[in-house]
Amino acid sequence: MASGRVPRLEDVARLAGVHPSTASRSLSQEQSGRIGAKTRERVLAAARELGYTPDLTAASLRTGRTMTIGVVIPDFSNPIWASLLAGLGETLQERDYTPVIIETKDDRRRFDRALEILTDRRVDGMINAAVRLTDKKRLTAFVARTPTVLAGRDLPGLDVPKVLVDDVRGGELAVSHLVQRGHRSIVQICGPGSVGPFKSRAEGAQAVVERSGDSVALHSHVVDQPTVDEADRVMSAALAAGPAFTSVFAHNDLMAIGALQAIRRAGMRCPDDVSVVGYNDNPLSQHLAPSLTTISLPFVQTGRTAADTLLSKLLHNDPPVVTTLQPSLIVRDSTAAAR
C-alpha cells in the first residue's frame, strides 16, 4: 500500500488473504455470523494493522441503508428521557446504528419538523417517544415509508410496533396508595390530555375513586405544560382556595416538585399536612426533602426493547406487536397517614 494512502477494503482483504466480499461480511455486525471465527479474526487483525475504518457513505450507497435511527423525544430537560436514551442507545450502537436524536418540546411544529429532518436524512427507522393523540395524520405517511416503533406513548389506530408502560395501572397504584393511608380528598395535577400516558394515568386514578364509592373525592387540575412552574401555580391556587385536601397526585415528578414548592411556601409541611405522590421516579426524586413517593417506570428497559423491536423489524419485517411493561410503586417519605 502506498505510503500515506487511506487503507481500503481491498487492502484489508489482500492482507488477510480473503476475497473483498468476505472481508466486508467479516467487518459487518449483521453479517459476521456467516463467516468462520478464524477467518473473521484474521480480517479484524488486518483491519487493525492497517488502521482501516469502513467508508459509511459508500456502504450506504451500496446497501441503500444509512445505519442511522431517528429518535424523537419530548423534552431534554426531563431526566427520565436520558434513561430511555441510555437503553436504546446501547442497543443500537451494539449493532452499529447511530441514533439521530430530536427534541419536540411537545410542540406540533417541532414534531412536524422532526419528521422532515428524519426523512431528509433517510434514516433506516424511527423510535418515537413524543407522539400525541392528535398526531395520527402526521405520522401515517411517515410510517408508510419508514419502519417505526412507538416507545412510552401510544397512538391508538396507528399500526406499528409499540413498547408501552401500563399507565392506567400506574394511576391506580398512586391513588390506591393514598386511599390506603386514609386520604379521602385528593388533588390530582394532570398533564395535557393530548398526551396518552397522562390521559391513562387520570383514568387509573378515577377507577380507584369509583371503586371507593362516595368516600373519596378527586379534584383534578389540567396543566398545559407538565412543568415545575405550572404545578406550583396550580397548587398555590388550590391552597389559597382552602386546604381541604390532604394529598396530591402529580402526573410526573417535575409537577410533584412544583407542588412541594407551593406547599412549603404556604407554611405547610409534607407529609405532615399534605402527602404528595409523583410519577416516573426521576433519578433526583429520592434526594428531595422529603424524598418523593412515586411510580417507577422501566425506562431503560423500554428503550432497549424499542431498539430490539425496531432492529428485528428491519431484518425480518415482523408484524406489529405491542409490548406492555409494568410500573411499580416506590414508597418514600412524602406520604403518610392522613392527618
From TrEMBL:
Record's keyword terms, sorted: DNA-binding, Transcription, Transcription regulation
Xref: Gene3D superfamilies: 3.40.50.2300, lambda repressor-like DNA-binding domains
One Pfam family, short name: Peripla_BP_3
PROSITE patterns per the UniProt record, alphabetical: HTH_LACI_2
One function term, GO molecular function aspect: DNA binding
Domain of life the protein comes from: Bacteria
CDD domains xrefs: HTH_LacI, PBP1_LacI_sugar_binding-like
Domain named HTH lacI-type: residues: 7-63
UniProt xrefs under InterPro entries: HTH_LacI, LacI/GalR-like_sensor, Lambda_DNA-bd_dom_sf, Peripla_BP_I
Protein name: LacI family DNA-binding transcriptional regulator
Provenance organism: Nocardioides humi
Lineage: Bacteria, Bacillati, Actinomycetota, Actinomycetes, Propionibacteriales
